[in-house]
Amino acid sequence: MGLLEDRILRIIELRQEGADDSEIGSELGIEPSLVCKYEDSTKNAIREIVKRGYIGLEIIAEKIELSPIATGLFVSYHRIDIKKHASYKPREERIEEIKKLNAEGKSAKEIAKELKLKVGTVWLYARQEGIKFAFQRKSKQERIEEIRKLVENNQVQIEQGELYLEDIAEELGRSALYIYQRYRKDLKLPDFRNPHERISKPRKNLIRDELIHQGLTLEEISKREEEITGKRISRQRVSQYVIGTNQKENWERIKENKKIEEEKRQELLSIISGQIMSSAREKLNENEKWAYDKCEEYYAKKKFRKIGFYDRLFNVFYEYKKAENKNEKPSLEELGKRTGVIFTHVGRILKDVGLEPFFGAREKHNVPEGKKQAIERAVAIPMNSVDIAYFLKIPFWNVQQYFNRHSERKNKRPVLKPIPSVKNYRRASEIYQAIAPENEKGCDFTKEKTIEALGISSKTFDYAIEHRREFEGAIINCLRTLYPDKEITKPWRDFKS
């Protein structure tokens, strides 16, 4: 990265942070007036290149001697339109240019390339002015007959493996891939000399090439390119580009080298961190020393220590020992909240150093066979997994996991109908069950007590009552599907299972 590019990127970064010319100049060690000069000179250079008819980020970047990434960021920040064609010329002048080049025997494609126009534009002018090009394109049928004759005349060489599609294409002045894609359904064509030529190669993308060379992942490349160009690109598209341009082997080698370098860096940092902590150990109290020793025991089993994770790891052991000394028994969730570590990770950390949670290891509770069959039937129910789990009295993730694992069933599930205000059928069922003994009286006390007990709003309660007939029917049908052997008459569970 050159000095100019480095400064331009830094100026854009500081501009986005809200810095003015004097602040940017102070940061870069230059006069504030030079900040605007850097930006203005670069903008003028880009606009001049665009005015000359150059199109495309890569070409413009090459002309101003910056990388495509830096050019893309600059153009995007200053909102410079680089998608312009060559400067405008009057219609009469364009037509005269086309006539002159046609008289020289050039085709429409060659004329379009020289005038920096689209081929369709040249053909449009030609049709309107009655211009007949010296080189007329052959029709598809004429081209088929031409290829057929070539194949028939060289049939012996083709059968002997001496002539391939590439040779036929060269005779016609076309690429083998073009002939294959356009005429394979009309003719029996010879084989490719190289079967890989059958796959079309993607166009070179300098921005993507540079990101690949940096050893970024597919996701990082797609996000970075979207930031630069403003065009969304999928990871699969990036993967196809890497393979199609024969960069996969080199890209994977760069990634592996980056990974090795990062591991070496982490290993070096872990050694330095260990030495610092070891020298500070003498100043720690008993609980802290115990936590430090457990950290060392934990990291002894790992390849290298994660520097940013050390503080939270230390806190896990420190809080564990402190609770043990006070005869407290916090759960894994409570330890996780105190230390900022996910409770499942807390359990794994304790297990790695031979410590048991205060309430023992979590036992696995299998879903009874009857409830598994009920989940199977629940595929046809237009309710979400939380509602179904509530009526089955099991954790909702058991239901959700079943739907996720059986994708073919998940795709057949009926479309869910959202319930405004009430949020879900579970809440509606709770409301109807709460007011059941006094629903005919409809007294305000029952309403107020239900709202307070369920922690809902008055609007939610009123909506559930207003649509009671609709919701009750849906809930009863759900319960009858889940429990076909039960006699269901109420929109809530009034039986044990």
Report on this model:
- With 497 residues, this protein is mainly α.
- It folds into five domains: 76 residues, no CATH class; 39 residues; 59 residues, no CATH class; 93 residues, no CATH class; 114 residues, no CATH class.
- Helices cover 64% and strands 0% of the residues.
- The protein has 28 helices and no strands.
- Helix 5 packs across helix 14 and helix 14 crosses helix 15.
- The chain is extended.
Q: What's the gist of this structure?
A:
By secondary structure, the chain is mainly α. The protein is 64% helix and 0% strand.
Distance between the termini: 70 Å
Instruction: Determine the structural class based on helices, strands and strand pairing.
Output: mainly alpha
Helix and strand pattern: HHHHHHHHHHHHHHHHHHHHHHHHHHHH
Our Rg estimate from Cα atoms comes to 36 Å
| Share of residues in strands | under 5%
Averaged pLDDT, please?
Answer: 79
List keywords for this structure.
497 residues; 5 domains; mainly alpha
Topology:
Blueprint: H1 3-16, H2 21-28, H3 32-51, H4 57-64, H5 68-78, H6 91-103, H7 108-115, H8 119-129, H9 140-153, H10 155-159, H11 165-172, H12 176-183, H13 206-213, H14 218-229, H15 235-244, H16 248-280, H17 286-300, H18 310-325, H19 332-339, H20 343-352, H21 369-377, H22 385-392, H23 396-405, H24 407-410, H25 425-435, H26 444-454, H27 458-466, H28 468-482
Helix pairs in contact: 1-5, 2-3, 4-5, 5-14, 7-8, 11-12, 14-15, 17-18, 18-19, 19-20, 22-23, 25-26, 25-28
